[in-house]
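dumping the sequnces here before i forget
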Amino acid sequence: MISFEPTEEQQMIRDTAAAFARNELRPAARAVDEGETIPDGLIAAASKLGLVRAWLPEEHGGDGLMRSALTGAMLMEELAYGDLALAAHLTAPRLFAFPIIEMGTSAQRSRYLKPFASGNFVAGSSALVEPRYDFDLQTIATTARQERDGWILDGEKCIVPLAGESESILIYARRGEEDGVSGFIVPREAAGVLISEPEKNMGLKGLKTYEVKLAGCRIAADAQLGGDAGINFARIASQMRVAAVAMAAGLARAAFEYARDYAKERRAFGAPIATRQAIAFMLAEMAIEVDAMRLLAWEAAWHLDRGEDAAKESYLAKHYASASALKVTDNAVQVLGGHGYIREHPVEMWLRNARGLAIMEGLAIV
Amino acid sequence: MIDFEFEPQVIERLKLYHTIAEQMMRPISREYDEREHEKPWQFFETMWSAAGAAAEFQPGGREKKEGAGVGARARNLYTIATTEELTWGDAGLFLSIPNAGLGGAAIAAAGTPEQKQRFLGPFRGGKPKWGAMAITEPGCGSDSAAITTTAVRDGDEWVINGTKIFCTSGQMAAEKSEGFIVVWATLDKSAGRAGIKSFVVPHGTPGMTVVRVENKLGIRASDTAMIVFDNCRVPFDHILGSPEINRERGFKDVMATFDATRPIVAAMAIGVGRAALDFVRDFLNQQKIAIRYGAGLYRLTAAERDFIEMEVQLKAARLLTWRAAWMLDAGRQNSLEASMAKAKAGLAVTQITQKAIELLGPLGYSRRMLLEKWMRDAKINDIFEGTQQINLLIVARRILGYSSRELS
Ligand SMILES: Cc1cc2nc3c(=O)[nH]c(=O)nc-3n(C[C@H](O)[C@H](O)[C@H](O)COP(=O)(O)OP(=O)(O)OC[C@H]3O[C@@H](n4cnc5c(N)ncnc54)[C@H](O)[C@@H]3O)c2cc1C
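..and the predicted 3d for all of it:
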């Protein structure tokens, strides 16, 4: 029966994340965007949230919460409402841990999950995007060749979160022309892995990303995620897209609320600018878009929670959110006028972050 | 718990409605578009006698859920779901189906239990009947608070004077059946919004005359009437809501109707949009063109990208609409969400149907197919029950916390 009511557990997670976003992420966002390192206190506070640990099975030292894409979407929206870059940074370890929890062999789970049970922030990452203008998830070009005693990986990845900080990276590659996409757990120190300096991007500066080159990188035979059974890549891709859509909703909500509050204060021609329809209608459309993005994320997540791969739903939702997040954040800059262009207000940063979110894949996972 | 699936019985019932849309509405769709002002009486009779069909189109309002049966637990959700199915068949025919219509919604939202029984009871049997709602006047549409039709108390009666236009099913309700018109009138012009009340005027009441039926761009199967009220008298207890002028409440009573009807109009839009989308998809499939979901920018054709955009816009509109109806069923204030859904759906579907014609080129433009009709039909959803701009205005006021005086 149709319902839009989150469960109590979901509401609790939502509230906790919202408070964290308000108290920790938002106040730190600008300084980090300007190049300062993320405050230790923030990282410590984030670790208490247990962004990985909560969903880690009890046998691996976690709280063993049932994984739910819907809950994940709510969490990601709230965190991104605080700050998109920091949200992506703090949740990057999920990109590594979650596919292993869901699709790894029991040996892989025992071997790689343990560190994430600790109370400290443990970096983790996955490498999906490749540095080509025409990249899409169906044309992944990184290859994995099977040798007698292991795999040889070749290819280039970019925008890999925390690659320089993570012990191992989950690399998505193709085993052959016809094959689907597989995952490979690659130690950062493995021969043939070349990690660049941190990338310099237009936005998302709080998220350290790297280029990762794989040149004849040789890894062990048991490094394929899920073993011979492999993985359901369509499902992982959907989980990533749902996360992106939910984050787009959070980011856009931040921009909408900021512009709304500003428009009620700022006066021109003798009245608050919000009393003019040109501004008021922009704000109304922004509010509608925020809700539309959230609902599309929820619907795709709901399919995932029923065990479906949600490939079409999440693709459509991502298509929608990419355009909407950009439109909403751009409108926010417009509502603030010249002041929106100045780095004293956060809206220009949100516009840069939205541009990134819209073109990227694999920044986060639900 | 969040859920995006209807109950099994509702899904079964929706299949039935889809069959009606496909087998009873589509075959006569073109005919009653071309023969404007003629009525598909056989279709009316069937719809009326189809088990409880007429009664099913009563939006539930916010208060308790009455009765049992399919969809009773979530009456408003059920109504928008069936609305989408039937407007997928034909929006004009859907609007012309005998039922209490917008007038019924007004009674459901603002009437006493006794009034509901008295005015809506007859819609459960007998001959086909129509209800209608008359707000719009020649001098005012969007600005419904500016209406000039008056109601004056004279002993046990109200005396109504004024001219109403664009009244959907007005002729069917006032002259062609034992129906009624709910008329908005002011008790005291100087009281502004607070002076506006609504009154039930039964068919055939002396002083009520249909003077004209409009020729339209689309939804031609539905009649749109101009009605003159000239010293038209109704009993005192035909007023909906309190006869007191309460300056605090303004016209909240009469506006409450829109919380239920805006999601329905949004659902009508979505039904037409889905018809166009399904048609284009089927057509492309026949040409062996499949939409490559998942492909990136450089592999998608412009046409695929358009189609994907249309599909997800429709979906976003549907989700917003479901939410607005769900809130109403849950007894929550949903004016904001109802206007969000209506604004989104009205515009999305206007654009979807226009784009659909572009995708089929000259074939889409031809009257041999229904696409061009759907584009004409779709447009009304961005106009009635509050235009695009009026719904944005309502959304803006709610999110800014402004009164209608502060933002107009
Ligand atoms: C087929 C059809 C069926 C209808 N059925 C019914 C019915 O059953 N009952 C009924 O009462 N009415 C009905 N209507 C009337 C309909 O609700 C009105 O046409 C509609 O509300 C707009 O009013 P208007 O036509 O007077 O346009 P106007 O109010 O004159 O508006 C003209 C334009 O100005 C814009 N505008 C107006 N005010 C503002 C503002 N404050 N800010 C920004 N823009 C503004 C509008 O959005 C619109 O674009 C029907 C109309 C049609 C065409």
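The first helix of chain B runs from residue 8 to 34.
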